[in-house]
Each structure stands twice: as C-alpha cells, then as structure tokens.
Amino acid sequence: MWRRTYLLLLLIRVYFALSPSYLHPDEHFQGPEVFAGRIFEYPSKLTWEFTTDLPIRSVFPLWPIYDVPMSLLKWFYMEIGAGSPPPQLVYYALRGGMFLLSFVLEDWAIYELVPSPRHRRAAVVLVASSYVTWTYQTHTFSNSLETLLVTWGLVLIRRIVENKHTSFFSYAVLSFIAVVGVFNRITFPAFLLFPGLQLLPYFQRKPTSLVVFVGFGLLFTSIGIFIDTSFYRPTASFLDIVRHPIITPLNNILYNSDSSNLALHGLHPHHQHFVANLFQLLGPAYIAMILSLFSWSIVPPWMRNTRALSAVSATVLLSIFPHQEPRFLIPCVPLLLSCVRMHRSRIFLAVWIIFNAVMGFLMGVYHQGGVVPAQLAMRSIVENNSAAQGIKSHPDATVFWWKTYSPPHWLLGAQQGNHTGQIDTLDLMGIPGLEMIQQLEIAVPSCPNSSPVYLVAPSSATFLDQYSSPSSLSTPHSPNLQLYRLWSYSQHLNLDDLDFGDDGVLETLNRVIGRRGLGVWSVRRACK
C-alpha cells in the first residue's frame, strides 16, 4: 500500500515540478538569470546582490546546479548545429533537475535519518505528501538547495558519530557540505549548530579526524573564494585574487547585520516564524505538534531526536533577525514532518490531504502562474502582432509589466535571425494606475503607430477596463490611449492585489479569484 501511495505522490510531484508557477523572484534572479546571459545569448539582468561593490551572493554553490546543465545543453545544440536551445527547454530542464535532486537526495536522507524501520516508510510518505515538497523543493531556490545540504549534513553527522571506523571520505563530504551550505545561505549554520555538537566528543577522541575535517574545509573555502572572485573580477590574475579576495558570505553577514538594510526588505515581529510561517508550511501537522506540547508533562516524543533539535533550534536562531519569510524555514519541513506520529488519525489524514491539495494548487499552479508562460510567449506575441498590423521591419518593442512579480528576462531567449527586434522589459511593479498610464503615454509614439508598446497585467486589475472596453473610445485621463488584448493565461492569481481595506472581503475575492488570469495588451493611440 505504501509503495502505491508513494508512486502516486511522486507523479504529483512531477506535475507540480512542470507547472510554471512563480513563488518568489529569487527563484530566477538568484539562479538561472545569473548564468543564462553568460552561457547563451539570452537577455539577463543581474540584481543588486551581484552588482554591488561588495557582492553578497556566491556563485560557488550555483555552478553545479545551473551552470553545468546549461552548458551541457549549449554543447549539445552546438554539436547538432541548432544554435541556442529554446528557453522553454532550459526552464524545464532546470525544473526537472530540481525534481530529481528532491526525489533522490531528500527522500533518501529522510529514510536514513529515521532510525525506526516501522516509521521510515511513513515518514518518507508524509514528507512526499507535503505541498512544500511539491512546489518549493522543485523550484530553483537557494532554500531548496539548503534543505538538501541540511538533511545530508545531519546524515553525515549521524554516520560519523555512530560508526567508529568512519573513513576520511565522510569527513571530506561533511566538510564540503558545510562550506557549500555557508556559501549558499548564511542561515545554514543555524540548522547544524546544535546537532554538530555531537561531533565534539568524537573529535576529542580522534583529533586526526578534526584535522582532516578542518583541512578539507579550508580547501573548499579557498575554492569557493577563488570561483567567486573570478566571477566578479573576470580579468583578475591569481595574485590579485589572493591579495584582494571577494568573500561573499562575509559580505552577506555584514549586510544583514545592519537593521537599516533589513528594513529595505521588510521587517517582521520576532515571533513571525513560530506564529505564522511554520503554520503556513506545515498546516495541521504544526497544530498537532503544538497540541502535543500541552499533552505531555515532559518533552513530547517528536522532540526527542536530532531532526527536531535542528529544526527548532534553527527557527529560534532565525527568529532573532527581524526579516522573516516562510521560505527561510523550508529545511524545517522534512525534518519536522519526519517526527510526526499523528498521521494515523483519520481526521488528521483528511485535514492534511485537504490542506496540501489547496496549497499545492494555489502555490504550485496559480501563484503568479502566468508570468513565465507570458514571457516565454512574448517573442511570438510581438511577431504576430507586428504581422497583423502590416509592420514588416520588425521594430523594437517595449513591454511594460504591471502588478506582477518581476519578469525573468532570460525567458525571452535569444533573438532568432530577423524575426523580431529587441524587446525591452520594464517592470512597473505595483505603482498606482494613473502613474502607469503616464508611463505608457510617454512610450506610445504619436500617430501613426510605429514602435509596438505592450502591457502585461493581471485581469483582476479593474482599472484597465476603462481603457480596454470596446465601447470606450476615450477616457478622462487618456483620451487617445487604447488597450487591445492579444494573449491571456487563465491559471494566474495575483495574491499581492488583495485589498480588503478598500474593496471589502467579498468584493476583493470576487475580483481576484473571479477575474483570475494574466493578459498581454497592445497599447495604441486612437489614430484618425
């Protein structure tokens, strides 16, 4: 029975891995966007983390996850003489790679971390049934990579502590995981700090193992610094790298130590992780864990293991910092779910299935779900619209994005021959509607229309109705500006547009959910 259940959950994970939802801009701009412009002839935009004088993001852990598969695809297409691969193929190849890493490494680690044979299968199935496993773990997040590093760090610690004849290879792998984890995210040590204390008696008995562990750590750290410095200073010589290295984890720590910097990204109460974020990730499992704290006079069983120690201690340490997002706690999800024993209750099972089904489709399908398909289709939209208007020269196009997540530039792909001109992507974020119209007024040329201008916006933005209604040839604000819908995608929800204060709960839900979708409009003047 458990095998059939696990296979069904595996198919569900594949479905969500290939669904183009968009959970957070970091899944693109701190990963694929960084390498796509360097490897292919794709447009790309590096965010401030990579362009500041003291860069805070390391490319050392990103290289095997993104650079290697992209380079392999480029090599294959060059061998067959087909130019650059289409961005769709690259996108789904990276998603497929994240799925394989989650399926193989995460499930394997949980199977090893649960000591009881009776509970192993149930733990693996419960983790595999979480919407976090379906969505976050199959997206290109640094947090998803952190989850794999944390779980395998715990596996290696356990192997070393329990095996009296551990080889040097185990020390080297654990050292590699520790270094890559820190270069990937500076939050990584919080998950292994207290579990790692188990190694102190072992290192005291075998000081040679400590020397090997530290030696490999220094080696991998040097490699990471060398790769980062070479990336940010391509022309630097080896001597320049030694004299003036770029240590991205140190820069990251210094940046996040300044509360004024964290304020730019949003400040949260210190209890945000425990009160809201863990509940959002775990749902009924988190409620069951909390209730167990009051039903036991001593520590409940689920807290009496290294997995719970890692998750709880990390949550406490991360709660010290005022900037707290749910994805920061993604490594806690498999660790805590592998401790749950209440899943045999039929009530718990029913609520668990409903919770993950709802959150799975919300986050895995509909959450900003039209951004990626729209960007992948943008060149075809521009080309077809130019042909429909009788424009044969394929002029440059300007695409404004409004009330969506930042569109990944690399998904536009390479310009193929003379089919389309240059596409300029401008992100207006969530500015007021009148300001958005003013931006369009400046960009749209005078009559006759010559340079195409497009607007990408959610269908729930009722402000656009006055400009796109066929019966309205003019408006008080812009008498000559008209929007013509060219393309739409229905599986898109803009949760950032929930304005309960102004519109009320029912009207807001009816607008955001009832008018779900993302549209691409051609912006033109009403020329006589």
From TrEMBL:
Endpoints of the signal sequence: 1-17
UniProt KW Nucleotidyltransferase keyword: no
UniProt pathway: Glycolipid biosynthesis; glycosylphosphatidylinositol-anchor biosynthesis
GO MF terms held by the record: alpha-1,2-mannosyltransferase activity
Chief location of this protein within or outside the cell: endoplasmic reticulum
InterPro entries for this protein: GPI_mannosylTrfase
Keyword Membrane: yes
GO BP: GPI anchor biosynthetic process
Annotated membrane topology: Multi-pass membrane protein
GO cellular component: endoplasmic reticulum membrane
Locations listed in the record: Endoplasmic reticulum membrane
Record field: transmembrane: 168-197, 209-227, 278-299, 347-366
Keywords per UniProt: Endoplasmic reticulum, Glycosyltransferase, GPI-anchor biosynthesis, Membrane, Signal, Transferase, Transmembrane, Transmembrane helix
Family of this protein: Belongs to the glycosyltransferase 22 family. PIGZ subfamily.
Protein name as it appears in the record: Mannosyltransferase
Species this chain originates from: Penicillium frequentans
